[in-house]
Write a structure and sequence with these properties.
Layout: H1 2-48, H2 58-69, H3 75-83, E1 97-110, E2 113-123, H4 125-130, E3 135-146, E4 149-157, H5 176-179, E5 187-193, E6 200-208, E7 211-217, E8 222-229, E9 233-240, E10 258-262, E11 270-273, E12 276-289, E13 292-304, E14 308-314, E15 318-326, E16 329-339
Antiparallel strand pairs: 1-2, 2-3, 3-4, 5-6, 5-16, 6-7, 7-8, 8-9, 9-10, 11-12, 12-13, 13-14, 14-15, 15-16
């Protein structure tokens, strides 16, 4: 009888220990899964930093933060950054720019909360081509489980650990496309002075691959332009005046080859155009418009045989002002309303 009772006791103890082992194993697996998710959130967030232009106008900045950070950051923290962008992580200058976050360590601070220490790795075009790091910026992130989702809820960024290479001060540059946005449905309204046709409206009608069709209506006529978008150049490949039918012209054979804007986006970049020369003469220009002052604009000077013109481009908006001068006459067109889709 004693042997039977002893056997039953041992069997119950074994079952009990097995249960404890399974519970511990499940808990460990859950912790590992949570930690892997936190790592994924932080690394995903790091890849989006270069997409958010902190010097963009507030409406553009708000849209950019929500689109790029919304998957990784709590709504409360995004709202805080929108109201105080100077203390938000993102892209401040053209070069160097934040490329990624490398995690150094991760620890569980409490149930549902992790603290992650890492470095924002900044690079320039040199490091992009040949590898390496231009600068490192220490960062600490608090990641919490909010409504069953792991989200970044607090961030602290320290000063640079390494000094980036000295480069010419430039406006915030995500890419050439950022200064010439061509998303379908986007519109720009310009207020003109000096000529009855100086006011005009632009709209992107069609977009396919690397080509976009823009119509321009100045109240006297409507023209259509097809632009080809590359990483190095924005090229007008087709132009047609008196285009009132809003037909899709994207597949029309090229009849133009006007390079509107090109890299490198630095002072002194110059290229020939039909009848003259275009040159980037400023990369941090300030310009006044009916919508207010815009800083950090690229100014392109266009010198033709009998006239000169200046165009100002702002990241996230496109052209914000144009100034035309010829034989004592000055005509200006400045942005008064726009909508980027």
């Amino acid at each position: 009888m004693k042997k039977i009772l002893l056997f039953a006791f041992v069997l119950m103890l074994s079952v009990s220990l097995l249960g404890c082992t399974n519970i511990g194993s499940d808990s460990q697996q859950t912790g590992e899964a949570d930690e892997a998710t936190v790592v994924s959130v932080v690394e995903g967030f790091g890849k989006k930093l270069q997409m958010v232009s902190l010097q963009a106008p507030k409406d553009i900045l708000e849209k950019s933060m929500k689109e790029n950070y919304g998957e990784f950051v709590s709504q409360a923290l995004i709202a805080k950054w929108i109201s105080d962008p100077q203390n938000a992580p993102g892209r401040l200058t053209s070069s160097p720019w934040p490329d990624r976050i490398e995690i150094l360590d991760i620890k569980k601070a409490s149930e549902g909360t992790y603290e992650v220490n890492g470095e924002i790795i900044e690079i320039t075009s040199t490091e992009k081509e040949s590898g390496g790091v231009a600068a490192k910026r220490p960062i600490t992130l608090v990641v919490k489980k909010v409504d069953n989702r792991w989200l970044i809820d607090d961030v602290a960024v320290d000063t640079l650990k390494d000094n980036p290479p000295a480069e010419e001060p430039q406006p915030d540059i995500q890419s050439l496309k950022n200064f010439f946005p061509l998303s379908k449905g986007s519109t720009w309204q310009y207020r003109g002075e000096g000529n009855e046709y100086a006011s005009f409206k632009r709209e992107v009608l069609f977009l396919e691959g690397d080509r976009a069709q823009v119509i321009e209506d100045n109240g006297g006529t409507v023209s259509a332009s097809v632009f080809k978008i590359t990483e190095e150049e924005i090229i007008r490949t087709f132009f047609q005046g008196e285009e009132y039918n809003e037909a899709n012209l994207l597949d029309k054979e090229s009849n133009d080859n006007l390079v509107v804007l090109k890299t490198p986006l630095k002072t002194g970049t110059k290229w020939d155009v039909p009848g003259g020369v275009r040159e980037i003469v400023e990369t941090n220009a300030t310009v006044s418009t009916p919508l207010g002052e815009y800083e950090g604009c690229i100014k392109v000077s266009i010198k033709l045989q009998h006239s000169t013109m200046s165009e100002y481009y702002k990241a996230g908006i496109g052209m914000v002002k144009r100034e035309f001068e010829a034989e004592g006459m000055t005509v200006t067109s400045a942005i008064e309303e726009y909508k980027i889709k």
